Amino acid sequence: MINRYDTFTSLKEVVLGQVNMSLVNLIKDERERDFLQAVLEQTNDSLNQIKKIYKDEGIKVHRPMMVEYDPNVEYTMPTFSLKAVGNPLAAADNFLTIADAVIEMSSVSEHNYFDYVQYQHIWRDQFKEGSRWLSMPRPTYNPLDIDHYTWRQGGEPLADAPAFLPCGQHIFHQEILSPDDVSAVVTDTALKWMQREFPQFEYIPMAKTKGHLDGYVHIVKPGLILSAFPKSELHPIFKSWEVCELEPENYNDVKLFTEFMQDDDYENTTLAVNCFNINENKVMMLKHVMDRHPETMRIMEKANVDLVPIEYDMVRWVNQSIGCVNNAVHREGGRENYF
Amino acid sequence: MSNRFTLPTYFYAKAYNEGSDHTVKVFLDDVCITEQNIPASEEQVLKFDDIHNWQEAGHHVVRINWDGKEEAENKWIKIWRLAVNDQMLPVFAFRYLPKETEFIKDNPKLVREKITKPGQTYGWYGDLIHRFSLGNPKEIASGLKDSPHRLSGIVDYEIYTDIEQSSIVKRLKRND
Residues with Cβ < 8 Å from A48, sequence gap 6 or more? Predict the structure, then answer.
């Protein structure tokens, strides 16, 4: 049964993404196919680490059902078609679990459109147990409706689930800046839809965010937040909280992190904050982030938070970190006021 | 003919081979923009800083082909910068496709480790490929949905024809 109001209370049930190896056959060049296979196999190793942790913790795990790649099949809608159903790695991207409901989101990207077929068995079972099962209005992605700059703002209700970050009775959401904000992962229509469907929450925009919120912040527990922004740039609601800053870097200085690896890219470094709680005192985090940020580790230790390192170096290629591949179905917490 | 796809393109690398003459070719899509024959034991800078006509929106490829007369233990190519329309493409994200040699065939575990975590220094002859999508936001989004790489789960990098659409941290600082 779905119960989700936050990112930190004790986890009871979760959806863990899956790697669909058959999709390597989309790649024609043999050497590139070998490369992709190596990336996906190592990604799968990381998922298996996480699966074992859940088993040890007694957490119930659901997995998506993959749609095998078939070169003779094309998935077609009136305004677009896809060669395959995408890899169901990012279990959290297209499904927002909130309160006692799951919302099948209308992604900002067409290529996620058919993702729901890989997860429907999970939500069907949750529905049978009494959960609510909702879907955002289906978008058309009609290219005739959209022009050069306002393509995401033509009235279509589009949102990725990580555009929203629940914390008790509050929901933080990506800031909607202007119609030409190309990084938007939530449109104004989608935000209004959420607010009408879930009026029991207070909605707070998170300034300067231009993508999934889990790439910017992670609420570790009440009073402690990991953030890619300094405290001064966070919403004043966090003024009494401890802010553990993992600032974004840029492409300018190439610094090798290990013999094989460097961690100088913007996406990866912001993904440093992308963690997943087992409970308020136990958090899964990328191992290479832990190795690289000893100061963060000290703050977490002081806050009585145990960090569980996950070896997941392929995050640089798949750009789906720990918080993306896990979707909490049931956490202990309710609609509390944590501020 | 100039159009909005005629864009500044920047590439900077260094190559060295202690024991053999070697050749580096850089291709932008199918166009070879530079071919340098480098004598053994000389460190050489490879630089391209010019306008290139990428022709159209959609998927594009930068390919570096590196080969030599003989194998040598101490040889490398190190890539420092790659930018299109003054937007940097991360140098760690080259797909490393080594030339099939006996060593490569005999060391699959090492090869797998290196191709998935390449860093910026490459020690085996072969191809280095960087893929990106070019255009305005609508063109990029439209192209990405057809991308086999994206569908399979790999990041596609984006280069905007209007630089104002790009993230500030990705913009090239020429004085660095």
Answer: none
